[in-house]
Amino acid sequence: MSWTRMQMAERLAREFEDGWIVNLGVGMPTLIADVPLGDREVVFHSENGVIGYGPVTPPGQEDLHLVNAGGQNVTLLPGAAIVHHADSFALIRGGRMDVTVMGAYEAAANGDFANWKVKGAKGGGIGGAMDLAASAKRVFLMLEHRTRDGSPRLLPRCTLPITARGVVTLVATDLGLFAPTGEGFAVRDLAPGVTLDEVRAATACPVTE
Amino acid sequence: MSWTRMQMAERLAREFEDGWIVNLGVGMPTLIADVPLGDREVVFHSENGVIGYGPVTPPGQEDLHLVNAGGQNVTLLPGAAIVHHADSFALIRGGRMDVTVMGAYEAAANGDFANWKVKGAKGGGIGGAMDLAASAKRVFLMLEHRTRDGSPRLLPRCTLPITARGVVTLVATDLGLFAPTGEGFAVRDLAPGVTLDEVRAATACPVTE
Amino acid sequence: MAERDGDGSMTRRNKVVADFDAAVAGIPDGATIAFGGFAQPGVPFNLIAALGRQGAKRLTCIANTTGGAHKPRMPDIGMLVENGQVAKVVCSFTAATRASDMLPFTPYYERGEVEAEIVPQGTLAERLRAAGAGIPAFYTPTAVGTELAEGRETRVINGREVLLEYALPVDVALLRAHQADEAGNLRFRRSQRNFAPLMAMAAKTVIVEVEEPILPAGAIDPDDVHTPGILVQRLVAIPPPPHGIWPVRREVPAR
Amino acid sequence: MAERDGDGSMTRRNKVVADFDAAVAGIPDGATIAFGGFAQPGVPFNLIAALGRQGAKRLTCIANTTGGAHKPRMPDIGMLVENGQVAKVVCSFTAATRASDMLPFTPYYERGEVEAEIVPQGTLAERLRAAGAGIPAFYTPTAVGTELAEGRETRVINGREVLLEYALPVDVALLRAHQADEAGNLRFRRSQRNFAPLMAMAAKTVIVEVEEPILPAGAIDPDDVHTPGILVQRLVAIPPPPHGIWPVRREVPAR
């Protein structure tokens, strides 16, 4: 039984340490803002200059002046601050993000990853991904282990144009939690009922325990 | 009869055009903030991030949180804004100053000037002078025409370490108002009773009408 | 346009113009225009609509995105593209974040009718700031090792490879602010701020649609100004809907 | 010092320390320390005095000036120099602006007991910002053609010669603010702001003396924060005089 997206979010959030500054990318990673963290307190940073945001607002209560990186209307927690885009990316490039969590198309054994351009496209969508990937202390990825047609997304090397070189710390997929080793991926956790053989069959490079 | 410092300030202020952003340096140039400008409105900018300041505060009414570049407690006019040092120098380097008015030790016919280091000193005082000199649209200087021992301060080339190359627009001294020409200085105005011969005798390079 | 570069004054010069059409009057063909906004907050919907009516051509448009993947659709750069006004865009997205979404801009780009320069978002912000700050170029670790850095100048500083990036100057910035005073001082509300202060720094002419009635000079405390008025040339107050365009709840709540 | 680099959180972690001595505890010998302030506003008088008592040695001190040319004299870098704590200063003034004034720092410098790097004020501000913004180097027209540019790297960009300048990273920033909340968000009053936000960006540890009582988190509107709390580690409220040191009218009213 593989993990749901929410379970992937919960599993990654277990890695957060108290006091971390956490940047959540567009898509799946935004689920993490709703994961209860118990005693741990982290500060969520959004690339558009929002420091200290909380859950998505319930319908009808949206503040239309306030969105997260995914364009969702969110709340502010006490102690929040707003800065402009250059200051926001100063925090990113300046190494203040303890972790950035992003979606991806591919993750590679050498720590590269790709999340901005699909095969055959003329353009793409970079957003803040290259800045975050280059400068966050840790890069966590969330992605389905295989594409819709069953091809592996965890590869020896990326086939798509990369977002940054050698930066990936952890990769959460529906099958488990993995860390790139250079040659392949090491299992950090498996979804309940998922076997190592299943992961190996779904991965294009060596998977070690 | 040579100009007083206040008359030098008044003469330079006559050059200001309506709508200019004006940066005033430490010392003599601060007098300019008190010159009445009639119909013309200019905005005074101070390097420490004060945009739109007015006259020096009367004794006893100082706001100790607010100083101009010279460390004098000043007032704010309606519409004033405060920015930090990097934004303040962004305005300077970004070419937003229509004019900067500075004191100087020497002004040269080639448009160089020197105002940060005296002869034989190991160190000096640059402050914002090099940034302002490099990037303001116009550089006006205010200085005594001669040193205390009678040596000329208007020279073919500076003898002291320069603040910037070839940037001087106008020089106001106790004897008059002058513009560097490359070879010497052109008279733009003379203090009442001062003759061209007197100016020539006090200047180390050609002075033309 | 009437303004000199960087023209501005505190109070006497009236920066308030009558309507959106007056606000965008005189923007010439070939201008480089920066548009504030990240998702909806800060997008100058009314000024974009007016620029469409005004008709300036061969524009270079700088913004985070070209817009248009959301419902309901609001005035965006994509509309100026459809209107034949745009020669080039400089954006951090030239495609939608979901592969299933198609930006109105994209087919024009794929057919080669509009040029695009894709720039990482932080580099875009920093290049705008650099233009406003008189910094002609800087080095950044962002995009090193990627396709974007191919053939470009890098160097190693403190053991790290970094990429040379140039300032991105702007002719006209079109912005939306929450409050403004007659001196042009601006305040933004929440994430409406985003690129606006940087675009104001980078631009020769700054035109702002303002959500609240324009305040008298001095009504904004000098400590609370987000963008100083000396950078701003034209202000226009946004009328209530339907005459003014205001943000609406999106049907699809993701960028 | 206990903090990790860039450590910070919103509210639960208590950033308020009991007194100035606790605020500067653990600053190690050899640290690079940035001091806020331009003339009097923003100078962290109390933290400087505490650093003198604390005794850390071989410090590199970054500030606009080393202070000390004014009456009455207030705690300044010059005092740390006299106290034998300083190896080097990085300033835009190493001499007083009036030839007739002598900075306490100057004779130590002239005797070679303290090193100095003189930096144009705008370059100093920009180098601090660059350090905080992850920009390792940038080009500027400032100081081109002067003695400061001799032997250094320049290039021509857009027809203009510009000088390469490097980021100036900081270990500890000592700042004075007007207001702070428990999350570390700061507000400065009037020209007190000056270098402080940039030094906070550039520093691993930011220590702030605060003029008003520390506010609960959320008491400062997020739109009104000058320096976000995630950059700030230690706060201390300044007691009224004579226990706290406050600005006084200067006898000589020029810098």
TrEMBL record, chains A, B:
In the record, what terms sit under GO molecular function?
Answer: CoA-transferase activity
Q: Does the keyword Transferase apply?
A: yes
Swiss-Prot/TrEMBL keywords: Transferase
SMART domains, per database record: CoA_trans
Alphabetized InterPro entries for the sequence: 3-oxoacid_CoA-transf_B, CoA_trans_fam_I, CoA_transf_AS, NagB/RpiA_transferase-like
* NCBIfam families recorded: pcaJ_scoB_fam
Entry's family note: Belongs to the 3-oxoacid CoA-transferase subunit B family.
Q: What is this protein called?
A: 3-oxoacid CoA-transferase subunit B
Name the species this protein comes from: Neoroseomonas eburnea
For this protein's source organism, the top of the classification is: Bacteria, Pseudomonadati, Pseudomonadota, Alphaproteobacteria, Acetobacterales
